[in-house]
């Protein structure tokens, strides 16, 4: 199978990198950013991309050389908006959003909306410099990723996108571009079992230890 896949990729002038073990989400991408490229797209396998999404994304990046990282407009599979931009989180925000039952979330609806920047995001206006963007779709300029040294390998899964967003904002600009549309069919760590919940908690602690704790 590996030989077949490699032939397919070679015929399309792409590079197939085989990694026999799983070093983690971010560390896996670090293997690729050493190759010569202008852009590096991070995309989840459960993401459906609109036919014109990549073209629109690349055109925006070419028109705005100050943009080092682009994030799209996203919906869940049922059409509900998924807000990929976030303000700096508190521990309460993360636990509420990730694990609280629906009736509890309803009690804190305005707080969650503020955390998810609902007051600033829509389906037609570009928003510059959101503090944090989701790793389900990140289009980077490769040189920005290289300057950052790639993803922090201390994050095996979860919060590597929070960390790299904050670091990327120090050397370039981040843009939310709603003309780039995707549908996310996955997510929700709380629905994936105790192993994912444990990894989420461990990475959350790592994130706050690096960037500073906020509880409420």
From TrEMBL:
The EC number of this protein is 2.4.-.-
Q: Name the enzyme group at the top EC level.
A: transferase
Describe the location of the Glycosyltransferase 2-like domain by residue ranges.
4-148
- Tell me the InterPro entries matching this sequence: Glyco_trans_2-like, Nucleotide-diphossugar_trans
Q: Supply one GO molecular-function term.
A: glycosyltransferase activity
Which terms are listed as keywords in the entry? Glycosyltransferase, Transferase
Q: Which Gene3D superfamilies match?
A: Spore Coat Polysaccharide Biosynthesis Protein SpsA, Chain A
What is the recorded name of this protein?
Glycosyltransferase
Task: Supply the source organism for this entry.
Answer: Aeromonas encheleia
């Amino acid at each position: 199978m590996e030989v077949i896949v490699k032939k397919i990729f070679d015929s399309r002038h792409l590079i197939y990198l085989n990694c026999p073990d799983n070093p983690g989400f971010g560390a896996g991408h670090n293997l690729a950013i050493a190759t010569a490229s202008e852009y590096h797209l991070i995309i989840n396998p459960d993401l459906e991309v609109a036919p014109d999404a990549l073209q629109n994304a690349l055109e925006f990046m070419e028109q705005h050389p100050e943009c080092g990282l682009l994030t799209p407009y996203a919906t869940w599979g049922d059409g509900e908006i998924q807000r990929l931009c976030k303000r700096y989180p508190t521990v309460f925000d993360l636990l509420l959003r990730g694990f609280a039952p629906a009736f509890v979330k309803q009690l804190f609806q305005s707080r969650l909306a503020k955390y998810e920047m609902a007051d600033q995001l829509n389906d037609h206006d570009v928003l510059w410099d959101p503090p944090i963007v989701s790793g389900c779709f990140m289009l980077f300029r490769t040189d920005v990723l290289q300057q950052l040294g790639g993803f922090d390998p201390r994050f095996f899964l979860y919060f590597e996108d929070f960390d790299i967003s904050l670091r990327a904002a120090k050397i370039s600009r981040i843009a939310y571009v709603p003309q780039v549309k995707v549908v996310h069919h996955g997510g929700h760590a709380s629905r994936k079992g105790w192993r994912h919940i444990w990894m989420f908690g461990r990475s959350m602690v790592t994130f706050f230890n690096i960037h500073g704790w906020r509880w409420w």
